[in-house]
Amino acid sequence: MRVNGRDARSIRLDEPGNGPPVPVIIDQTLLPHELRFVALQTADDAERAIRQMQVRGAPLIGATAAFGIALATRADPSDAGLESAARALLGTRPTAVNLRWAVRDMLDNLLLKPIGDREAVAFERAADIAERDVEICRSIGRHGGDILRRIAEAAGGDRSVQVLTHCNAGWLATVDWGTALAAVYDAHRSGVPLHVWVSETRPRNQGAGLTAWELAGEGVPHTVVADSASGHLLRIGRVDVVITGTDRTTRAGDVCNKIGTYMKAVAARDCGVPFYAAVPGPSIDWELGDGDEKSIPIEERDGAEVSEVRGMGPDGRVSSVRITPVGSPVANFGFDVTPARLITGLVTERGVCEASREGLEALFPEMVSRKDAAG
Ligand code: MRU
């Protein structure tokens, strides 16, 4: 997608010709104030980038981890070397399942290969995971865009479609396009008049800082609101549709996403507004069935993200300020689970389905296990 009028991706592989390929990320901790590209030279760099949230968003975490394994082959391509890098990467962020999916995919492929071939295979495989993510997101965009086009048609074309989103489920959270925002970009590029309510997404403000920055880059009309304004907007009829991303969706269609998603789904249901989650296949945890959503590990992060707010002062310097009394305890839960019953539909790369086991398995029949099919 576009940054300052130029196409960019959240992660790319630089192939300098006179040296080995180098993954390059955007340091998202500096946005929206500074756009800085950072080269990842080692698996430790990749691990740090995920842990410190220089890269974040479930699909991008997965792609970065894949490149992390590729970088590990450069230092120590032995089985032990790769398994140790995998352990370190898997320990970075517990909730998004794409991380586990990507690391497993890399190891499954690499451990079968002769040691001398591993580096080349690994970079090819990681680049392939990144490319596949782009295609998945482009396709989610087309299916989600259709939902927005239908809403626009029903509105008779005389007003903008009002979309409410949460956190950042845009191209910065994936390799390109995004998931929830891919629908917005697809519809916007096809001429649908729309406006996005951007929920700021405390405590790290991925909505205010990242989603607003992305939408501005693509020229999509938007307004940032406090998270607590979402219910009011829904009640007064200022939202046609809510679309969010997901970090892990169970086989039963329960969606784990950034903290605050559940409250939006509850309010949307109360107000009769459709609520969709954009779900890439690799974000589905097929190991979790009905009632298993409680076993999703909910990341608990540093309390300083709650007790402090980071931003740019009038002197142009970026710093953090404390907003709670010294000594007041804080808690920082990163994600919540929205039960399938509150979700109108899941927008996947293969189409839109009901948030249910039947819905997901109809779109991904290869994931119906033989035991399940028999029983
Ligand atoms: O903590 P983050 O910023 O990694 O959380 C990101 C989200 O919750 C996104 O909504 C989710 O990863 C889906 S993004 C395509």
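^ MRU complex. The chain has a mean pLDDT of 96. Residues 53 and 288 are 26 Å apart (CA to CA).
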